[in-house]
Design brief:
This protein is mostly helical. Helix content is 76%, strand content 0%.
Length: 332
């Protein structure tokens, strides 16, 4: 809960044009909210609820927008602050408070309580998000999504909410729904690297390599030396056999992971396909040093030596022997 926002609401009560009689009617409510804000003791919220409930008895009381707003403020504060339900509110307390608040927000002149409305919405949304996380921990992804969706309907721009929705949908196997959430997340100027990586994996599973590449390229602009993003982009180019595009990544790839076997082997294969045998040889040899039991770089290096020798006007026995030795070593 945003205690600064609650404090600002309490400050507004004392400085705005509410009549003295109005403020006096809710004196006990405001005092208990203020004590709670200072001491963080839930008992003050219990007393605030008792006080506000006593002031709303008749139909006329219910029609009083001032009282109704602060009833919602108190209830929303309890819902977020009392996560363990120490005050023993009924099971439907969150749902009924949301219905009450929704009805309240449609009333005339409610716009004069903009700070209170923001506070109520934020606390209700946070209560639903917290409930959604409880369901996530129980692997009940459907109920988690339901609660996150409600939170999003209350505060559409709630921080990280789309991340939670995308994660839950992904866990449920609803990849198209998850992809839609990630589409929204990637509209941000600086989405997190993990968000981008998860999004591109889902896009690739759905068969949309182009979309995956667009996501990775955006991520690389924000995180130019992120190893995972670099490697995912390199893999896409490698799978597409776009070695010219892959070559542009090699300098940075090798820079950030100089002793990574996979990256050195990938660099060797790329240079090999681009007919740059000297560079390919360097990286094949490095890959072999990094993993002496690997078959591929040894075999490829033998083939490379064979091709280099065949390209010469005059071949030598020594070079053929060198190529043969690597090919035989690969098959040991």
């Amino acid at each position: 809960m945003d205690r600064k926002l609650l404090l600002s609401i309490l400050f507004l009560i004392g400085t705005t044009s509410f009549s003295f009689s109005q403020t006096e009617q809710l004196k006990d409510v405001f005092n208990n909210l203020a004590f709670y804000n200072q001491k963080h003791d839930l008992q003050f919220l219990s007393e605030a609820k008792k006080a506000i409930d006593k002031t709303i008895i008749t139909r006329s009381d219910s029609a009083n927008l001032y009282k109704s707003i602060y009833k919602a403020v108190v209830y929303a504060t309890i819902l977020y602050a009392d996560s363990a339900n120490t005050l023993r509110m009924p099971d439907n307390f969150l749902a009924t408070t949301l219905i009450y608040a929704d009805t309240l927000f449609k009333r005339k002149k409610v716009f004069t309580y903009s700070s209170e409305i923001t506070y109520i919405k934020r606390n209700l949304a946070n209560a639903y998000i917290r409930r959604g996380f409880t369901y996530l921990q129980r692997n009940n992804y459907k109920s988690a999504i339901t609660n996150f969706d409600v939170a999003k309907s209350i505060v559409p721009d709630a921080e990280n909410l789309s991340v939670y929705l995308a994660y839950a949908a992904n866990k449920m196997g609803e990849l198209n729904k998850s992809a839609a959430y990630y589409d929204h997340l990637l509209e941000n100027d600086k989405p997190g690297a993990e968000v981008i990586l998860t999004a591109q994996r889902i896009y690739k599973i759905l068969g949309d390599t182009t979309k995956a590449l667009i996501a990775i390229e955006k991520g690389r602009r924000v995180y130019p030396e992120n190893k995972s993003l670099l490697y995912e982009e390199a893999n896409i180019y490698n799978n597409k056999k776009d070695y010219a595009a892959l070559k542009k990544l090699l300098f940075t790839l090798v820079k950030v992971s100089p002793d990574d076997y996979d990256i050195n082997f990938l660099a060797a294969v790329c240079y090999d396909h681009l007919n740059q045998p000297d560079q390919a040889e360097i990286f094949y040899k490095k890959a072999i040093r990094l993993n002496q039991n690997s078959y591929d770089p040894v075999f490829n290096l033998g083939i490379l030596y064979m091709k280099k020798e065949l390209a010469k006007p005059v071949q030598t026995v020594e070079q053929y022997d060198l190529a043969r030795n690597f090919l035989e070593k690969a098959n040991e």
